[in-house]
Specification:
- By secondary structure, the protein is of the alpha+beta class.
- The protein has a single domain, classed as Pnp Oxidase, Chain A, CATH 2.30.110.10.
- It has five helices and nine strands.
- A hairpin with a 2-residue loop joins strand 3 and strand 4.
Length: 210
């Protein structure tokens, strides 16, 4: 079979303006709740796309760790490639793809660090191995397997069972300015509804051509 012949027919749901929530956070909450209770294997997995100061993009999968009407939260090493790019260019996009529901959500906006107390609370909730790992890994920098294992061993002994949050590790909040909800439909005539933030702080809802 040719790659060009691989295709999927989408027909499970539709997305109409009459059924859409008044704002994108409420609409996302509805879809996310459905994803949690469906057979979606990684409902919190999302592609995070950033760009450096010159505009060169990069993307990777991260995990959503919270959302409300203030934005979407994820955590990382501030000294990683994505951390450096967000420091130089604090704008990003997120993409959720839930193939089991034939849905995508695209989110764009500015990014700000979450308050230290919020990062502290989430860090303390992580398994001990992950907390040690945040100290041990010089994320995005070259390292050997042996050197990383040695760092984990040394820091486990040094930090004990209650390591503090590393100063170079914490959360970011993407404050949405544009959110698109994509529902797969037959004949590639997909439903695309986009919410865009207005100057007054409300939201405009528009249907886009598939």
């Amino acid at each position: 079979m040719s790659i060009a012949d691989i295709r999927q027919t989408y027909q499970k749901f539709e997305l109409l303006e009459s059924a859409a929530a008044a704002d994108p956070y409420a609409q996302f909450g509805q879809w996310f709740e459905q994803a949690l209770h469906s057979e979606v294997r990684e409902p919190t997995a999302m592609t995070l796309a950033t760009a450096d100061a010159s505009g060169r993009p990069s993307a990777r999968i991260v995990l959503l760790k919270g959302f409300d009407d203030q934005g979407f939260v994820f955590y990382t090493n501030y000294q990683s490639r994505k951390g450096g790019e967000l420091n130089a260019n604090p704008h990003a996009s997120l993409l959720f793809f839930w193939p089991e529901l034939e849905r995508q959500v695209r989110i764009e906006g500015g990014v700000v660090p979450v308050p230290a107390a919020e990062s502290d609370a989430y860090y303390a909730s992580r398994p001990l191995g992950s907390r040690i790992g945040a100290w041990a890994s010089p994320q995005s920098r070259p390292i050997s397997h042996e050197a990383l294992a040695q760092r984990v061993q040394d820091l486990t002994r040094e930090l004990g069972d209650e390591p503090p949050r590393p100063p170079h590790w914490g959360g970011y909040r993407l404050q949405a300015a544009r959110v698109e909800f994509w529902q797969g439909r037959p004949s590639r005539l997909h439903d695309r509804l986009v919410y865009e933030r207005t100057a007054e702080g409300g939201w405009n809802l528009t249907r886009l051509a598939p």
